[in-house]
Structures are given as structure tokens and as C-alpha cells.
Amino acid sequence: MSDKTFRIYATCHIGDAAENKLREKGHELEIYPGPEAPPKSLIVEKVRSGVDGLITTLRDPIDEEVFAAGKGTLKVVSQIAVGFDNINRADANRYKVPFTNTPEVLNDATAEFTFLMMGTLSRRMWDSEKLVRAQKWGAWHPFLPFLGDEITGKTIAIIGTGRIGLALIKKCLGFDMNVLCYDPVFQNHRFAADVQQLMDLRYKLGMVKENNWIKYVSLDEALSQSDYVSLHVPLVRTGKSPTHHLMNERTLRLMRKDAYLINAARGPVVDEAALAKALKERWIAGAALDVFEQEPLAGDSPLLDPELEDRCRLFHHFASAGRITRLSLDPEKGMAGRCIQGLLDVLEGNYGGDKTRMPYVVNKEAWTGSGADGEGI
Ligand code: GLV
């Protein structure tokens, strides 16, 4: 612990509780009023002025220019998000600036939202509500004007079995789903074996009619054999396992015509032009997207084509946006709490000042010389 005070610049508000905590500790906190992102030049200017800590979001490009501006003064970048593809890890390492993120606390909120998007899409809830609101609900009928697809008992492909992918698998278990797993970097066979045991037990107890199953397969198998494909990989543009445009013309064509694609990971994991074509030409049944190649979604995006409205659900990067998940000061519950804890660990020199022991520091390899990249989020 240290009683030194520091200068902190935040590129957005992170909630009263977390902001007050920093101020109560005597730190000088300046916040870009937003809600839009500050221009990069302003971030560079603030860092050059000597701030010790920088609080960022996934909208802020943090790279060589920023780290160079903070040379000798910038001690930590604390990102309020689990994904950190906006932060250039190699540049952070070169300048030996630790950056932190907010994993775990958003697993359930994100997985839950992913599941609900899947339900909204598959059971056509949007079309149903529109019908009622537009006073176009003529009569109850066994199958007119449309039907949806049940989720219970179906097969889901979880692409990326990091924390959020695993949290989604737990939710799918309650819907008697079979699970195909794919992860380019790390296969959690132990988790899969535990889930299989639960599935077997539910069957043995007579709670389900069929014994569900979970297994790791290749990407092509996962895509071609599932009713739902849900993406949970981080955005990785280079290296051995890039995920940029993982879903492209080839991989979308592998999916079944009656299958749905769900993306609550990162927009550029999906080639949107290819997806719009797949939806239009009905290579797949539908898609629900919480993230986009460009955010906010541009007005001329082919995904906004009214012709696709019945099979394409669109959300505003909202999956982790539950009140507790976003704002709780408790670092075990909230992104705001975890964000400032990561920042304070570095500034206050917690863990004896050893960055490799600080739980929310991502780029530990800058001090250990080794590190994993690209694992599911
Ligand atoms: C949200 O997308 C996050 O990375 O936390």
C-alpha cells in the first residue's frame, strides 16, 4: 500500500461509485465527458501531460504513439472491458507499461445476453411484437403468419471456449442442448468432461428424454453440424490463430441452411459483407449480432437492409451491460470495481509491486518473458 496520490485520466465515465472511490483516495481524476470516445490526439495530449494512470475502453486505440507520449510517466493502462484488441500489446510490452482488463465479472451477463439474443432470433420475438404493435395480428393460427425454431434439445457450436464460452455452455445445459466445442488455442477437456457428467446424471435421473453430449471437434465440423453457432473468440489479427473474418464466405457456407449465427464477441470476427450475402441468399437461417466491424453500425451497412429484418437481430454492443456487471464497485462483481482495482494495484504497488502477481495485469510476459495470447474470452 502507498499513500501517494496520482493523476488519472479516464476516456469515459465509469460510474459514480468507482470515480468517487478514486477521488476519496486523494487521486486527481479527469474524465472525458463523452459519451463518444475522445479523439486520439486528446488521449496522447493527456498522457504527454504526465498522467500516471489511463482508464480506457474498447473504443480507444492505445498504441506506440500513446506509450511514447507517456514514456517515463505512464504507469498503467486500465481497460474497462475484457477484450483488449484496441491495445497494442507489443507496444505496451516494449514500453513496459502494464495494462489491465476486467475478465470474469462479465461472464454471466454476456453469456446470458448471448442466450437471450439467440432466443429472440430463433423464436422470432421481434416479429411477434411488431405484429401486435402494428395491429396486424389477425387471428390465432397453428402456423400463420410464421413459426419460430425451438432451442431446447438442439445442438450449439461454441466457437471459443474461454470464460464466456464456458459460461454459455452452462446456460445451454438447462435447455437440454448438445454442445460442439471449438477453440483454436486452448481446449478445456476437463470442463467438457464435467459437463458430460452433469448431462449423464440428468439423463439417469429421468430429467431429460435423451442423453445430451458435449465434445471438441474441428471448426468445420462444429459449423456444419450445429443448429446455432455462437462466437466467443477474441479478435486476433495476426499470429498462428487469427480470428479476423473467421466467419467468411467459406465458413458461412459450411453452416446449415436452418442454422443461426450469434456474435457477442468482436465484430471483425465476422465478414459482414459475406454475412449479409449469406442472409440474403439464405445460406443460413439468421443472425443475431451485438458487435460490428465498425461501431456504431454505419447507416449504409448491408445488415440494415429491410429485406433482412425478419432474420437479423442487431444490438448495440450491449451484452455485458447489466447494472451490477457494469457498475459494481466490488471487483468480484463489477467491471468498474475491477477496472479501478487493476489500476490501483499498479499505482499503489500492491503485491509487493510485482506485476506478474497482479491478477488483472494482462501483459505479464513483459516481466516474465512468456505469455499466452488469443485464448477464448
Ligand atoms: C466487451 O465487449 C468487453 O470486451 O468487455
Outline of this structure?
The protein is an alpha/beta fold. The chain is built from 14 helices and 12 strands. The strands form 2 sheets. Strands 8-7-6-9-10-11-12 form a 7-stranded parallel β-sheet.
Structural descriptors:
7-stranded parallel sheet, 5-stranded parallel sheet, binds glyoxylic acid, 12 strands, Rossmann fold, alpha/beta, 14 helices
Which small-molecule species are bound to the chains here?
Answer: glyoxylic acid
CATH superfamily of the largest domain: NAD(P)-binding Rossmann-like Domain
How many domains, in number, for the residues? Answer: 2
Largest sheet: 7 strands, parallel
What is the CATH topology of the largest domain?
Answer: Rossmann fold
The Rg value, from CA coordinates, equals 22 Å
Q: What's the CATH first level of the largest domain?
A: Alpha Beta
User: Which series of helices and strands comes N to C?
Assistant: EHEHEHEHEHHEHEHEHEHEHEEHHH
- What structural class results from the helix and strand content? alpha/beta
Could you tell me the number of beta strands? 12
Could you characterize what this model shows?
The protein has helices at about 15-25, 40-50, 65-70, 90-95, 105-120, 125-135, 165-175, 190-205, 220-225, 250-255, 270-280, 325, 335-345, 365-370, and strands at about 5-10, 30, 55, 75-80, 100, 155-160, 180, 215, 230, 260-265, 285-290, 310-315. It is of the alpha/beta class and about 375 residues long. The strands form 2 sheets. Strands 8-7-6-9-10-11-12 form a 7-stranded parallel beta sheet. Helix 5 packs across helix 7 (about 165-175). Glyoxylic acid binds near residues 58, 81 and 83.
